[in-house]
């Protein structure tokens, strides 16, 4: 569960502080829209921090995964370029980190076949995140891809033998499945050695930021505040966010999830303790809380937004970064696939 993963994340942070070069990171996003504050404080901030520590970072744009909960990937190329822009604007450096789309890396996708053989239909069907996504999906029936994408995600993570995955809380069941697949592959084919690591999730202080409707902030649920939104739009969205009727502001994530998620958002932008900040806002009510959040978010994002606008002038540069990232990822995937085929005795 989440609290075990938080304890584990704290232990991982200690190891990171001692030896950041020991880890290899993979994490990513679906190109379904622009990145938002949930991404930023849930995972993006950690990606940049790890890159700066000197850890090798792979950033995946999961374009095949768009098709899990819709029939057609609308505006795909545009979304992909927007993700790259968001990454660069927050500080991902393509000279040190590899940005790629998984559809451009055939050797990665080939891992899906042996991996699917290692999990049961019952295990796939139990996944709580997939169940939640099916409930929010626009489709009337569940596609085979929706059912199996967590195994595809295991290929995304294991193709580069990543052992650390900075993600939000919704990804914990998928990480568990990835660990299971790695372990079973090693047991069945490793011949006493371990071909794949069993990767850990790295949770941030905001593993589940809520959107303006009080459910998980998500690109495709119309409840998100995009990093690239304007200051006025940000203010309007935050003013409309769901809260509760109590005048006194407090930080109580279990009892008052909507109010507490707003307090946490402001606290993260201001680098403050959320409990202290809630005490200070005190009797100012939801309106006072929202004013604090709006100011904090807009100030925090101002330099990121300015950088993004500048980078958006050169689309050719964005496409070049992707081409280079895809090439690097393909080379890594081919090496791993060779190893997998040798282990499985299918290299003739
Ligand atoms: P979609 O609605 O299209 O699924 P999304 O907003 O859920 O979009 P993803 O691309 O599915 O975004 O997720 C990318 C990463 O961001 C994952 O690691 C996920 O855990 C993290 N993440 C997404 N939303 C949040 C959130 N509200 N709080 C914390 N982390 C989040
Ligand atoms: Mg999602």
Automatic annotation (TrEMBL):
EC top class, as a word: ligase
Presence of the UniProt keyword Nucleotide-binding in the record: yes
Acyltransferase keyword on record: no
InterPro entries: aa-tRNA-synth_I_CS (IPR001412), aa-tRNA-synth_Ic (IPR002305), Rossmann-like_a/b/a_fold (IPR014729), Trp-tRNA-ligase (IPR002306), Trp-tRNA_synthetase (IPR050203)
EC number: 6.1.1.2
Lineage: superkingdom: Bacteria
Keyword vocabulary terms for this entry: Aminoacyl-tRNA synthetase, ATP-binding, Ligase, Nucleotide-binding, Protein biosynthesis
MF (Gene Ontology): tryptophan-tRNA ligase activity
Pfam families reported for this sequence: tRNA-synt_1b
Record PROSITE patterns: AA_TRNA_LIGASE_I (PS00178)
PANTHER family: TRYPTOPHAN--TRNA LIGASE, MITOCHONDRIAL
Family per similarity comment: Belongs to the class-I aminoacyl-tRNA synthetase family.
NCBIfam families in alphabetical order: trpS
Record's protein name: Tryptophan--tRNA ligase
Species of origin: Streptacidiphilus alkalitolerans
């Amino acid at each position: 569960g989440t609290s075990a993963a938080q304890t584990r994340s704290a232990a991982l942070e200690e190891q990171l502080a001692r030896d950041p070069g020991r880890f290899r990171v993979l994490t990513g996003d679906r190109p379904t829209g622009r990145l938002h504050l949930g991404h930023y404080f849930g995972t993006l901030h950690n990606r940049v921090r790890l890159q700066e520590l000197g850890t090798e970072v792979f950033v995946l744009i999961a374009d095949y995964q768009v098709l899990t909960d819709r029939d057609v990937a609308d505006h795909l190329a545009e979304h992909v370029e927007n993700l790259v822009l968001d990454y660069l604007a927050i500080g991902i450096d393509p000279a040190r980190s590899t940005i790629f789309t998984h559809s451009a890396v055939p050797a990665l996708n080939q891992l899906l076949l042996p991996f699917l053989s290692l999990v049961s239909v019952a295990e796939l069907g139990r996944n709580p995140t997939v169940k939640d996504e099916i409930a929010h999906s626009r489709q009337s029936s569940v596609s085979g891809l929706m059912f199996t994408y967590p195994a595809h995600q295991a290929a995304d993570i294991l193709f580069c033998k990543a052992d650390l995955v900075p993600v939000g809380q919704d990804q914990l069941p998928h990480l568990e499945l990835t660990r299971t697949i790695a372990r079973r592959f090693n047991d069945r084919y490793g011949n006493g050695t371990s071909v794949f690591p069993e990767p850990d999730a790295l949770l941030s202080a905001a593993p589940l930021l809520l959107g303006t409707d009080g459910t998980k902030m998500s690109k495709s649920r119309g409840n998100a505040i995009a990093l690239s939104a304007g200051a006025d739009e940000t203010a309007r969205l935050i003013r409309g966010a769901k809260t509760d009727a109590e005048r006194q502001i407090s930080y109580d994530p279990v009892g008052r999830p909507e109010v507490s998620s707003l307090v946490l958002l402001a606290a993260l932008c201001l680098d403050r303790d959320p409990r202290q900040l809630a005490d200070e806002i005190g009797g100012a009510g939801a309106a006072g809380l929202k004013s604090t959040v709006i100011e904090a978010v807009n100030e925090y994002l101002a330099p990121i937004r300015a950088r993004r606008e500048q980078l958006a002038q050169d689309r050719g540069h964005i496409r070049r970064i992707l081409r280079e990232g895809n090439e690097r990822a393909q080379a890594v995937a081919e090496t791993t696939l060779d190893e997998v085929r040798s282990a499985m005795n299918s290299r003739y």
